[in-house]
């Protein structure tokens, strides 16, 4: 799901990044390129590692479907999914068995506080996820507009 905003440089940085600060720098680079085309950038938020459909792989598929559908509806979508492999790799450095809040407090906080994201779309059952609840609170605090994605978006995708 990469697009014209990514270069080989960003892809290489994802492969070698050892912390969430470096991932955030890559995200900001992508967002700055996106802003040159359209100021109304949205991000899809929802469960990945906790809550949602109860399985990280199913949650990722659902987020990817929502990102794709938002793009098909004409929204200018920042796709955070290419960061997932690096996020999982970096999270392995943290103590197992507890939620890695560093991904929220460094990576996503940097993205949201950058001002590039104007609106966040939340997939159904976002409220079952620790991370998605954090994202929602951050959006409210920063004045980022919110939209709840209806279940109907997934009727054909989940079938």
Keywords summarizing the entry:
Rossmann fold, 48% helix, globular
Question: Can you put this structure into words, describing what you see?
Answer:
- The protein is an alpha/beta fold and 159 residues long.
- It has a single domain (10-154), classed as Rossmann fold (3-Layer(aba) Sandwich).
- It contains 6 helices and 4 strands; from the N terminus they run ααβαβααβαβ.
- The protein has helices at residues 8-16, 20-37, 56-72, 84-91, 102-113, 130-142, and strands at 41-45, 76-78, 117-122, 145-148.
- A 4-stranded parallel sheet has the order 2-1-3-4.
- β1, α3 and β2 (76-78) form a beta-alpha-beta unit.
- α2 packs parallel to α5 and α5 (102-113) packs parallel to α6 (130-142).
- The longest helix has 18 residues, at 20-37.
- The mean pLDDT is 94.
List the helices and strands and how they pair.
Elements: H1 8-16, H2 20-37, E1 41-45, H3 56-72, E2 76-78, H4 84-91, H5 102-113, E3 117-122, H6 130-142, E4 145-148
Parallel strand pairs: 1-2, 1-3, 3-4
């Amino acid at each position: 799901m990469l697009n014209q905003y990514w270069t080989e440089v960003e892809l290489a940085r994802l492969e070698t990044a050892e912390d969430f600060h470096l991932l955030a720098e890559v995200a900001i680079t992508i967002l700055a390129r996106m802003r040159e085309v359209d100021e109304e950038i949205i991000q899809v938020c929802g469960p990945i590692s906790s809550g949602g459909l109860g399985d990280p792989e199913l949650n990722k598929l659902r987020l990817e479907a929502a990102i794709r559908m938002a793009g098909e509806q004409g929204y200018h979508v920042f796709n955070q999914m290419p960061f997932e492999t690096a996020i999982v790799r970096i999270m392995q450095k943290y103590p197992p068995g507890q939620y890695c809040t560093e991904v929220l407090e460094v990576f996503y906080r940097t993205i949201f506080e950058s001002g590039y994201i104007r609106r966040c779309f939340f997939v159904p059952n976002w409220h079952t996820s620790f991370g998605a609840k954090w994202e929602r609170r951050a959006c409210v605090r920063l004045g980022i507009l919110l939209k709840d994605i209806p279940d109907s978006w997934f009727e054909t995708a989940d079938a």
